[in-house]
User: Fold this.
Amino acid sequence: MVGNPVNAGTGNKYLAETDYRNSAGLEFTRHYNSNALSSGVFGRRWNAYNQLRVISETNVLVTRSDQRAYNFNLVQDVWTAYLDIADKLEAIKN
Assistant:
């Protein structure tokens, strides 16, 4: 990373701004990504929430607040991502 923080290899600027944090650990952080195509409630290329988009009954796309997107497929009742993805997706059943 170089100045303000920009990735010198890609030219992408990524910034996390924590707007609120209390002593109990509750925190609110906004994320800016100059390569992001979306706009959030905080303006163009800013986001603060994880988003889930259902592609089909067995495929969902999760976009994290830092704009990283992960594709999960339902295989034998387990939501599975690519092997190099450590994040987990679990169904909550009533």
